[in-house]
Design goal:
homodimer; about 550 residues; Rossmann fold; Luciferase, domain 3; 9-stranded mixed beta sheet; 7-stranded mixed beta sheet
Chain lengths: ~550, ~550
Amino acid sequence: MQFPLTLSAILERAGTLFPNVEIVSRLPDRSLHRYRYADFYRRARALAEALVRAGLQPGDRVATLMWNQYVHLECYFGIPAAGGILHTLNLRLHPDEIAFIANHAKDRFLIVEDTLWPLYEQFREKAHFEQVIVVPMSNRTVPAGSTDYEQFLQTAPGDFRYPELDENSGAAMCYTSGTTGQPKGVLYSHRALVLHSFALAMTDVFAISQQDVAMPVMPMFHANAWGIPFSAVMMGSKLVFPGRCVDAESLLELWASERVTLSGGVPTVWLALAEVLEGSPERQSLLKGSRGLIAGSAAPESLIRKFDGFGLRLIQLWGLTETTPAATVSHLKPGMDAWPEDKRYEVRTRQGIPIPFVELRSMSDDGLAPWDDKTLGEIQVRGPWVAASYFQLPTDDKWTDDGWFRTGDVAQVDAEGYVKIADRTKDLIKSGGEWISSVDVENALVAHPAIREAAVIGVPHPKWQERPLAVLVLRPGNTVTEGELRRFLESRFAKWQLPDGFVFVDELPHTSTGKLLKTELRRRYQDWEWKHPGHAPGE
Amino acid sequence: MQFPLTLSAILERAGTLFPNVEIVSRLPDRSLHRYRYADFYRRARALAEALVRAGLQPGDRVATLMWNQYVHLECYFGIPAAGGILHTLNLRLHPDEIAFIANHAKDRFLIVEDTLWPLYEQFREKAHFEQVIVVPMSNRTVPAGSTDYEQFLQTAPGDFRYPELDENSGAAMCYTSGTTGQPKGVLYSHRALVLHSFALAMTDVFAISQQDVAMPVMPMFHANAWGIPFSAVMMGSKLVFPGRCVDAESLLELWASERVTLSGGVPTVWLALAEVLEGSPERQSLLKGSRGLIAGSAAPESLIRKFDGFGLRLIQLWGLTETTPAATVSHLKPGMDAWPEDKRYEVRTRQGIPIPFVELRSMSDDGLAPWDDKTLGEIQVRGPWVAASYFQLPTDDKWTDDGWFRTGDVAQVDAEGYVKIADRTKDLIKSGGEWISSVDVENALVAHPAIREAAVIGVPHPKWQERPLAVLVLRPGNTVTEGELRRFLESRFAKWQLPDGFVFVDELPHTSTGKLLKTELRRRYQDWEWKHPGHAPGE
């Protein structure tokens, strides 16, 4: 029973059992490219063969710089099938940072789509790829000195045989987007990606099925688009790739033309969709019966309710680059269906229970935190798709001595095992010796009809150490006063937990993957002058 | 990412996340025993601890002799958690054969339920267990010289720590029921059972979920009840064990009281259920919305249609003891829903497509058989839960030189990858140089309203080498003539494929696992005198 768990077996299965299933991609000119698994299978194998002929050695890194589209999917399978490591570069990073990452990973090849050539030019002097392969997505002329992807595929004679791969060898890698410090690489083994794919196909995880039309909106250049492409290809799902057009209107077009049943993205994607649909009731039924995965930051309850109204079930999950990434997922347990509505939604806004084989514990300063839904602790995880170190960096304090990964997320866990992330360790607000969860206050604020987005940060305070400051983006055409917001929050929070200041801005800073950039906010408001006297805990 | 795949992690997950989920078992006095995962978890760990204290060494075999009930489930997890190997003895075998198997496996311990003590007494002189532990299911006095299971559990002080287990170490074993030859043991590693559990929880396989109430009717003493207990515990499903009462009335009682959503068994179980429900229309809605797994032999189309009428979807699967056992499963691909009814049912009577990571090929005498839905070939499989050898036997011709397991099942495969088992290699009827599939003719025969069960065997023929003989069991109160049956079959088969003889009997011989015992039938009818002249192929 020693059959290895490799992505090649998934590619082989897809080509053999699902040759007629469609893969649809939005091209730069907004037209739709369509082909079938049979084509994808042939081309992914050709890519593997061409790479080997071009000198790829087992374990060599091949970088990609691409949006979500079919060639990226060919890279997802073709590079690992050749024994190489798919290294997805995050195109939203600063060019210098991309170069740093490519150099740190010692990427030998780069496969870049032509529309991103201008980005590549911004760091080409600093990076050291041996060969640059350009994908002619928009029919531009491939620049001199680079290789045309289509011609590259034609160098494969077509008699590719998979190299024998150890399931523990590397298949893909991704660098953490980290809001601070040097980017760190996470290497995913074939085994980890296969097991993660198995898990995503479980009914109680994402239920990815051949019946699905899956549209990953979360970028393929970050955390493998949450592993959706690997699992969907294993199960034979139709795939829809939105390319660079991830605005709500473009996505709704695809929902309509391709009958999408499963999608996923960060809250900002869903917020934008909700906004368009609220102004366009005749299109709300488009989403009916489909599922939406949401992660990256906590999903506000109001958003989950809104999509329930459209007939799309938002499913919250949680994970990190280091966890491949899915670690927990939030479904109701049987019996909870009969709970009062508010209690049901309270569970659904949680990050959920651990996926099979992800083991999870909560550690407070006093040791193991009880699952009492009160005690806050840092969430630590381990499992067959949880990283044990960073790529070519000394093991650091992100791992405990007994081998658990320290996620840096602080949470309370209830008796049923549902995790509720309160904050990043560093985003907790320490006020008068007690902790305030910025996430709780943010979620309450966005439930107000005038508020589009909210960030709550701890700002130094002469008396209380830190006090919460709310930084808010209003919905277009709305106004609200500080007094109204305080009254709105008072029913749900103790006085000492309320922000002592409210600032209205046009836009909040985000990381390239859509997370609030609180380090930047804290920097901006570090010299904030408090007018409010603050409250002692307990008030 | 080196976290091992062991059953201990499943046990730990179940105890932590699903303490309140119920496990219901039918006791020998027909009453229902109820407890919760928290109890199961505590007792399974106590069993592990008690076994270690009783001298169990890593890899030691612990035999069980039990029906489907909660203590058997405790053994499923407690024995492997201790580092031992769960060896389920098949209580339907001849006592001498059970003794042979226990001795071949060198079982050190036996855990037997008290109702099966009389069976044990029939082979105790021949077997060599060091310790016999008796489960007081019916409150009999535990026989002298044996250990009371409940007292055994109390020897555990309650501070059990899981031993560190290699995922490739053995966790369970089962001997093939084989209709011929010496029984052969298959050893399942922790890894194989975990991966198999992952697969069963996939939406496109069995979709086992925490929402399910799973009632395995297939015996836990054979092929791990198709792996359902392992996967259901991993997902937190409510479990219902029918004990020894697997008659249709008893099962329907459980369907009603426990709201079963998922069950499984061999065709005879489903045939019996259908018969009762047809005579009791008011109870047909009991099954509505539930799923039924069916395997062991091909499910007749008429049966699938009947259960569709009751609102229970029968799902065909195929596998062997050597494949843990699930290898293929039959769901419709998207698009097939729009096919004409007859074509849809034709697909659903097939054994289905390979489950992820099971690789399958069909080998005819001329090599690889094309997937043209015509060419018959032997099905060969490989994968992470396909055995690579038998337990302590030299590798035999069941494995090809290139490492595939020869299943002995002959099938045709269609272009979409759906397998249709025609026969066991040895059950094919060779008539005039052509092959006749006995299974096809049997399925057609049971579609006749007067026929309850049918076996078609090849019987030596002076001119045609072999000719088909049909051996039939009528439904109570029905009659039919040979001429009527011939006419009934003529629309679907060529003349040379029709049986040349029809015999009516009260009962057909079966193996202990419900399969037709064709070797026995062939023996009985070896001297059959043909009255019919037979037909040349093509007629």
